[in-house]
Each structure stands twice: as structure tokens, then as C-alpha cells.
Amino acid sequence: MTAAKPRRRAPVFDVDQLLKDPEIKVIVTCGSGGVGKTTTAAALALRAAEQGRKVVVLTIDPARRLAQALGLTELDNTPRPVRGLDAAQSGKLQAMMLDMKRTFDEVVSAHTTPDKAEQVFANPFYQSLSASFAGTQEYMAMEKLSQLRSQLVAEGEWDLIVVDTPPSRSALDFLDVRMIRLLTAPARAGGKAYLKVVTASFNIFGKVLTRILGNDLLGNVSSFVASLETMFGGFRERADQTYELLKGSDTAFVVVSSPEPDALREASFFVERLQHEQMPLAGVLMNRLRGAAAGLSAEGAGAALERLAELADDSPASLLAQAALRVHVESVRAAAHDRAMIARFAAAHPDVPQRSIPALPTDVHDLVGLRAVGDSLADG
Amino acid sequence: MVTGKGGTGKTTVAAALALGLAAGGHRILLVEVEGRQGLAQLFDTPPLPYVETRLAASQGGEVIGLAVDPEAAMLEYLELFYSIKRGGSVLRKMGAVDFVTTIAPGLRDVLLTGKAKEAVTRKVGGRPVFDAVVLDAPPTGRITQFLQATHEVADLAKFGPIHKQSVGVSTLLHSPQTVIHLVTLLEEMPVQETLDAAAELRAADYRIGRVIVNRARPVLVEAGLLHEGSVDEQTLARGLTQAGLQSGVAVGLATALATEVNEYSQRQAVEAEADDQLAAAGLPIVRLPELSPPVDVGGLFELAGALEPREWQYPPNGVRS
Q1: What does the pLDDT look like over B229-288, one tens digit per residue?
Q2: Which of A167, A185, A294 lies at the smallest CB-CB distance from B6?
Q3: Cα B204 from chain centroid (whole Å)
């Protein structure tokens, strides 16, 4: 299949150079849902490992069969070796799925005494927060990255961490760290800001707030904040470290998109956000680019179809040729659509290196498939 | 409620659904809650403020758009129920609004669904202002949690107005007045997520409306045309020669076209399998074709025509009887 290239000359994203660069220690993939982000992250990790690097890939919510291909059967926050690698190089690959709740619990445990940790775990507000807070996944992915990164430095077990981020805009929320700003406000304001909010609300707006929120909720929030207070310093420190780490020259962000308007809109958002924050954006991978194998034009195929229709011949050869020509017309249409979408994106971001990954007929379920995706990253 | 895995086109389907429901003189509110301004993009309008804005006329009816901002919804809520406009701004200064809308996701979701409830029940002169409210809801992975937030908050806040509000919203969401439509593509992951979400929603006692299969691929390759599942290139080359191509050209072309047909039929097989899985789950399915070029307002009307949502029946009691 000929990989369609963007009409406008955006710089080509040299993926192999990125994967081989020993200075790069962290690769973060981001993009909207449904673009094959997790598969791409896994393919990058596998390719790097088969080129000799010692890689750990952190995935969030992978497709079941992809998880199985990586040897992952449960959320357990522990990197597991991926078997079946090409042994020609001395690389290795480990994979893990993020367990959000457990990571949150680990952070709490690491920053407080067992007694206090138990109190926090028992708080209904914590239970609700750790399971469902919209930013928890993002924050916890970064927390886990930070842990892995420390291990990388300390133990040298890996030399490359590939992190897949949650499929939403808030994946980048660690950049403006809204949550962290909120969580760490007490530390900045002498450790009492939220207590102050809560206490003050009892005094000044006590009746109003209590009427709105209900007494129990406010009480739970208050004790939650109080019990977490000792940990805020730890949170903030780690968040700052992670932020600095991701800004460093040993990190590379890869934005993954598909040639669909919604996905490209999100990709633009990610690109602009990363550039604005001066985060190291390595390039954009356009996944699932559809192409046509045959060079015949849609008009040529249409004319041939008409001739066959005029002959009204029901022979298998004629029917097969008609089906093939219809498929070709559809392939040409799809390829033109995808090329046009990519050209628009390239025009809006002429300075961002790009590369396309051809669409595969079926989903990737095994290392062979991941390897094929990896190979297509290096071609042409 | 319209949900779907990311990339399945749930916003597009929500918009087409709203247009379809508006046809025939109905007034439909189309609500987005994720701050993406997807509706403005689709209808080619400037970003929507937190104000009801007319998006389109549809056969005597109209679609009004609204992008709900949780913070504004919170302040509106305070104002509406407590007349504490100033209190609201003080709360904002104190970080309480930020706190509630960001840190306490359950409250955030309750405010969003609460806004939908307010629109559903709003009346002027004894008549409902909107005939239906279409909510472009969070994705399938989060939809049950989004709807269930009302329960969690009702449990967290055991009394008080938020408790009462949560119970009211929850009652509406579980009533026959609410249905959840699931948008999917005929691909492995979206179908799996759809099946998972459908099971979760049913277990939590919500009503599934339709599974809307978006961008369905036409069946172009009948199995009978293939030889053991793939194209016989010589047969294809003969057919191409009949079509007037020179035999040398036809042979070369046959190889490339065979690749295209084989890949297409593989995708067809994946789609057929996905289709079977959905059918086996007993979910009512509606199919939408892929539009080309990318969907614009005209395309939305085309999709609305393909959906015909006014014809849908919802047993036992429909959204509209």
C-alpha cells in the first residue's frame, strides 16, 4: 500500500531516530480517544525494545486483546515482562496497566503514617474522589511515571519509559496543574487555606453553605482536607518534579491522531498546548491513514464500471471486476478525504514533524501486528 | 442522552438526532457538557456561550444549543435557589466553587444533569418550553458513573437542598422520560465498550434507546466472489480486460486491486462480526452511512433523515407517547 503523504511539506517525523536516541528517557503519547493511541504507544515501545532499548510501557485501559498480547491480564501496577521479542538485540520490554485507585492509595500511604492513611481511606469523600475524580487518571499517570522514573535512575532496570495518557484533553491538565494548585493551596497559604474556607464558611456563610451542601458532606470534606493536609507538601513537590521532568530534553511528547475532523481538532489542541508550555513535542503520528493500492483514478474506475454494466455479463470474472472497481472507487475517495484532512492540519502546523501510519484491515492483537505498525513508522 | 466511545462521532449523532426530533415543529434543546465546543464547530457558529442559542431551523422546528459550564451552572444554581448572587462570587473568591466543580466530580455531574432536568421541566404558561432535550453526554467509559453521580451525591449529602436536588435528578434519569443512545463504529473496541456500557446501564436500571452504528461501510464484496476468502487475480484480470483495459495493464492492476478487495473484505468480516455481537445482545440498532466530505450542516440533515428519531418507539413507555 502506498502511504499517502501530506501535500504540504511538513517536516518528516523521524521515529527511529527518536527511539534510538539514548538521551531520550521518556516518551509520552497523547491524543483523543479512538485514534489508536494505546496501540501506537505499545508499537513504539516494542520497536524501541527490538532495537536494543530496555523499555517499560505504561498503558491506561488498553483493549483486552492488546493487553493479552502484551501479557497483561489484570490491573496490578506492576511491570510485567512481554514475551516473544525478537532476541537479536539485547533489549527488553515490560508493560503495565495503571490501577488508578491503587496508585492514589500508594501516594497516600507514602506520605503519611499508617493510622492516618487508614483514616483517609475510610473517608467516604476520599472513596468517591479516588474512584471518580475526572483528573485522577491524569494525575495518577504522572505520579506513576514519576515513580518509574525514579526507579530508572536508581536501578537502571529500564532506559526508556513510554507513557500512554488518558484519552481526553485533561490528559494535559498536569500542565496547568489545576488540581495540584487546588490541592496544594493549603501549603502555600500556611497550610490552612482549605481549612480556612471550611471554617470560615461555618462562621460567615455557615448557614448558606450548610444549607447547600448538607452538614455531613461539609464535615467529610473538612476532615478529608485536614487528614490530607500533611501530604500536600509531598503532592506539590512531586508534581513540581514531574512537571520539570517532562519539560526536560530527555522527554518527548508524541501526539497521535487519525485523519478525522474531531481527532484532528484534539490533536491541534494538544500541539498548541504543548508548544505554549514549551514542552518537548517530537511530532505527530497520523494513524489509520487510508490509501488505495492501485494507481487507477476514480474516473477511470467509473468508466470501466460503466462498460461492464453495459455488457450485462454475469460471469464471475465480470462480477468480481465490478466489485473490485467499486472497492477501488471507495478506496480512492477515502484516501483523498484523509489526505485532504492531513494537508489542512499540516498547513495549520507547518513546523510540526509528521508521519502517517497506514490503516490496517483489522485491529492489532499481537506482537506481529505491533511490529507491523512499528515497521510502517520507519518506512518512506 | 447520547454517549459513545471517543472517535465514534457521538457529538455529530447528537446533533443529527436533535435536528430529526425538531422536524415537524418541535423545539429541541441540544446540550454539550464537556467544554469542547463541538456543537459550534458542527453548526459552524462562534463558540457557544452559557446561553441558549438558536443553532438551526428544521422543518418548522428548531434546535437550540447550550454549552454548559459547570462553574456557571453552580452559580446559577445558587442564584436560582438561594438568591445569593453576591454569596456566589464570594464563594468563588474563596475557591469553594472551584473546589466543588473540580475536586468533587460527583457534584459537577449532578450540576450538569441538573441543568438538563431544569430544561426538561421548564414551563412557560403551563407548557413545556422544550419538546425534548438531547444531551451530548460523556463517553461510554464514563456514562454510567456520570448518571450515577446523583446517587453518590445523595448519599454524601444526606440532607439539604443538594440531597433533594440529586434525588429529583435521579428520578428523572431513571424514568421513561430518559433514554440513553449508544453511538458506535463496527470495530472491535467501540463495540466491546458499547456492550459493556449497555450491560452497566441496564444493571443500574437505565433505559437504552438505540445503538447507533455510525459510518457503516457498504457491503461491496459478496463472499461468493472470492476464492477461499480471497481474490483470484487471474479471474479479476479477465474481468478487467472485459472492461476494456489492455490485458497487460489489467494483469498489473489486478494485483493491486486484489490487495484492496482482500483488505476491504477483511474489514467487512470484522464489521459483520461486530454487527452480530450487537444483534446477539438484543440491542435495537440504527445504521448511519459514512458521509463524504466531512459532516457539515447539510450532512447533519442527511443523517437526521437517516435516523428518523420521531419514528422510534421505546417500550414500555416512550420518551414521547
Answers
A1: 899 999 999 999 999 888 888 888 999 999 999 999 999 999 999 999 999 999 999 999
A2: A167
A3: 19
Closest residue, chain B, to A318 (C-alpha): B239
Number of domains in chain A: 1
Looking at residue A205, the DSSP 8-state letter turns out to be S
Record the cell numbers describing residue A172, joined without a space: 494535559
What is the biggest distance separating any 2 CA atoms in chain B, rounded to whole angstroms? Answer: 83
**Domain boundary assignment for chain B:** 2-221+283-311
> Which residue of chain B is at minimal alpha-carbon distance from A62?
B189
Q: What is the CATH number of the domain that holds A130?
A: 3.40.50.300
User: Could you give the CA distance from residue B78 to residue B319 in angstroms, rounded to a whole number?
Assistant: 30
Contact criterion met (CB < 8 Å) for B225 and A323: yes
The one-letter amino acid code at A29 reads: T
At B8, give phi and psi (nearest 5°).
Answer: -90, -10
Q: Is the ipTM of this complex over 0.95?
A: no
Which of A211-225, A253-267, A336-350, B99-113 shows the lowest mean pLDDT across its residues?
Answer: A211-225
pLDDT in tens, B33-89: 877 788 998 898 999 988 999 999 988 999 999 998 877 777 776 666 555 555 555
> Quick check: B128 and B122 in contact, CB under 8 A?
yes
Q: Suggest the residue from A138, A262, A270 to mutate for an interface test with chain B (most B CBs closer than 10 A).
A: A262
Give Cα A212 distance to the centre of its chain: 38
Q: In terms of pTM, does the model score above 0.95?
A: no
Residue of B82, B141, B158 lying closest to A214 (CB–CB): B158
Answer yes or no: are the C-beta atoms of A94 and A79 closer than 8 Å. Answer: yes
Which of A320, A329, A360, A363 best probes binding to B when mutated, by most B CB atoms within 10 angstroms? A320
Please, are residues B29 and B52 in contact by the beta-carbon 8 Å criterion? yes
What is the CATH code for B2-221+283-311? 3.40.50.300
Q: Is the dihedral of CA A190, A194, A199, A200 positive or negative?
A: positive
Confirm or reject contact between B239 and chain A (CB < 8 A).
yes
